[in-house]
Amino acid sequence: MSASAGNNLKQLASLCRSLISNVLHAEVFAGVGLSSRSSASVLNEETLKPIVELLSTVTKEDVGLATARVASNNRSVGYIRIYSDEILSVGIFVIPCSISIPLHDHPDMCVLSKVLYGSVQVESYDWDQCSVSPNTATKPLVNHGNIATKVFDGELKEGQLNTLYQNSGGNLHKFTANSKEGCAILDIIAPQYDENKRPCTYYKAMPLGTATSNKFCLESVEESEDFCITNWAYQGLDWGFDC
Ligand SMILES: [Fe+2]
After folding, report:
1. 3: CA distance to ligand 1 center in Å?
2. 119 in a domain, yes or no?
3. Strand pairing partners for 19?
4. Distances in whole angstroms, Cα of residue 115 to Cα of each of 38, 54, 102, 179, 237
5. Could you tell me the CATH number of the domain that includes residue 87?
6. Fewest beta carbons within 10 Å, which of 50, 63, 88, 235?
7. What spacing in Å lies between the alpha carbon of 105 and ligand 1's midpoint?
8. Using one digit for the tens of pLDDT, what is the confidence trace for 130-166?
9. Which pLDDT belongs to residue 176?
10. Domain presence at residue 102
11. What separation in Å is there between the alpha carbon of 4 and the centre of ligand 1?
């Protein structure tokens, strides 16, 4: 663990806090019709760059995962909450080997992820649409689903980062732990899921056209009964969120 690790986490928490206020302002303004600015407009590559840079320095040791943790039944996904409010969520998913977080979306949201240990197979999609907001977008319909493009199907290894945005970067994704020790993924999510405004929906993907086509029909499905999350306590360095 580096000597400056604790400071980096506190600096990262501070940047996340300013992100909260920016997103909050955007939501309030958009909500009362004062501006067309949405949370998406403040969550772009440029504004998130300082957070991405600091996130890249966070290690598994910093967050108390020097040794891989495994769920007792080896089937459920562990979730370690570091911080959560109405706008921001910071936490770690610990996924046992061969277990998946099913395909799901992040409506009007941005997610920064870092693989802390292990490797993860990522399958991700973006909706085919013209409009900016997924709430107002007219997504091309086929049967009972919507058309999406698969934008990534590959492995992310320890230390690698991924950022997804409202309409790009693979806003819908499925994670499957590849390595025998499983994997742990640190997620910074903004804004937070919201049952009314930003609900989480699960999907199944059905290929369209030829086997080599990257176009899929995504149909919403109930959350799988096989998918189970267990909350675990955070045992790493202090982020200073509560200061
Ligand atoms: Fe996700």
Report:
1. 31
2. yes
3. none
4. 29, 14, 17, 12, 18
5. 2.60.120.10
6. 235
7. 7
8. 533 445 455 555 555 699 999 999 999 999 999 999 8
9. 97
10. yes
11. 29
